[in-house]
Amino acid sequence: MKITVTRELYPGETRVSLTPEAVARLVKLGAEVEVEAGIGITAGIAEPAYVKAGATISSDRKHLLNSGDIVLGLRKPTLEEVESLKRDSIHISLLDPFNEKELIQKFADCGVSAISLELIPRTTRAQKMDELSSQANLAGYEAVILAARYCNKIFPMMTTAAGTILPSKVFVIGVGVAGLQAIATAKRLGARVTAYDMRPVVEEQVKSLGAQFLKIDVGETGQTKDGYAKPLTEQQILQQRAAMTKTCAESDVVICAAQVFGRKAPILLTAEMLDAMKPGSVVVDLAVETGGNVAGVVFNEVTERKGVTIVGLENLAGRVPVHASQVFAANLVALIEEFWDKTAKKFVLKLDDEIIKGCLVTHGGKIVNEKLIAKPA
Question: For residues 162 and 330, what is the distance between their CA atoms, to the nearest angstrom?
């Protein structure tokens, strides 16, 4: 079975979908692996490393697209690239399926079985394939590093001959994977950390990392079966904002990491809340790629509002491409290994398996994922 991998063309994307170590694992399974020339440059990986791992190199992108039984990528392909894929092949990448209806339909029309990595179920068995978690983990780390760079204070407490320097105060909003890593990283740097999430169930996790959990009584809240927070009502949002404003005003750094899967990110920091913050403080918006948690955040830019620096840079995981590529490739290979027939030496789409049911969006010329199929009125 032939697995092909194309180079990422999205502006500023530094990550790669397959590393030489991942290639070696696929070759060991019995797969033929061919990658596009220059695939690893942005992550500092030289072509000879891919060749040594067992891959062949091609500079013909269209050949890679139409010759692969499985075509791997990181970012979603263009409509034209989907048309180049051979019928009955399998494409695996991040597809943003809820916002890319035309792209998903194109996969179906072209008879390609498309797997969306965002839809990998968040179960114990699928944990090793969970790209969202692995990339969010690194994004949470990088958010704190950026905050420390732009903050006009140091993070740790220091006792010096000139007196004691008090630790910076960091407020993390949204305690998912990214938020938890942000808490842990800020604590390592010596900051005093407070965190909030509308899911009370995460309080124990916050405290286990040495941070304080901000309790806000907004009534009944919860999370989806996939671990995402359920949207709040308008009244709950007003109660939440009122309580958060005081903590924001006292903080030197606020990191927002709240996203609702498949929907526009909720605004958590309003203009009024930003007005309450001290000049010199920093806000990092981890949800900027889905609309942003911060009022007035500018996509992929660092701006200043009344003395408050707002960091709206996209793709924070891509700022550490070596490790981001390493874990992304490991997620991909774990998925392939899970459904690899060692005797036939090929990837088998087990349509009745819960993981495949969760992430397969098109197959046999149709859209097959229940989350994407329009329900009759």
Answer: 49
112 and 146 housed in the same domain: no
**Residues 106-157: tens digit of each pLDDT:** 999 999 999 999 999 999 999 999 999 999 999 999 999 999 999 999 999 9
Asked if 127 is an active-site residue, the reply is: yes
Q: Is 116 one of the annotated active-site residues of the chain?
A: no
- Which of the residues 58, 84, 105, 127 is marked catalytic? 127
| Count of domains observed in the chain | 2
Is 88 tagged catalytic? Answer: no
Domain membership of residue 306 as a residue range: 138-319
Indicate whether this model's pTM tops 0.85: yes
The single residue of 133, 240, 281, 326 carrying the catalytic annotation is: 133
Q: Could you confirm whether 259 is annotated as catalytic?
A: no
Distance CA 256, CA 51 (A): 42
Tokens found for residue 249: 């005003």
User: Taking a C-beta distance cutoff of 8 angstroms, is the pair 325, 15 a contact?
Assistant: yes
- What is the tens place of the pLDDT at every residue in 269-301? 999 999 999 999 999 999 999 999 999 999 999
H/E element, 146:
helix 131-150
On whether residue 205 sits in a domain, the answer given is yes
Q: Is the dihedral of CA 203, 205, 207, 211 positive or negative?
A: negative
CATH for 237: 3.40.50.720
Catalytic-labelled residue, pool 199, 228, 305, 353: 228
Query: Of these residues, 122, 188, 241, 305, which one is catalytic?
Result: 122
- Which among 130, 197, 252, 285 is annotated as catalytic? 130
> Are residues 269 and 199 part of one domain?
yes
122 flagged as catalytic:
yes
